[in-house]
Amino acid sequence: MPFTKGQSGNPAGRPKGSQDKVTRQTRQLFMSIMEGQVEYIEDALDRIRENDDERYIKALTGLLPYFMPKQQEIDVSMREAPKPPSWFDDLPASGDASWVTKE
To answer: What domain count does the chain have?
Structure first.
């Protein structure tokens, strides 16, 4: 039985973007380990900074992906020129003041 493009074979399955159990447990384990290591990491970075600026920058750069989301370039292109919204058709013509209420 072939699937239709864009239609899931299991519509009641795991939602798109949700993590599976192993990924969630691994992340929790890693976070619990790292919570106890913060001061040791700070001490190690201090020692690296004192001895070698280049290695210090490299170490910080290596840690960045774990604390900041990776920036991705997105290419946006349009196949046809954008059209004005349909409600523009309901606006009065230029110079037509009949829609203005007079008091």
So the answer is: 1
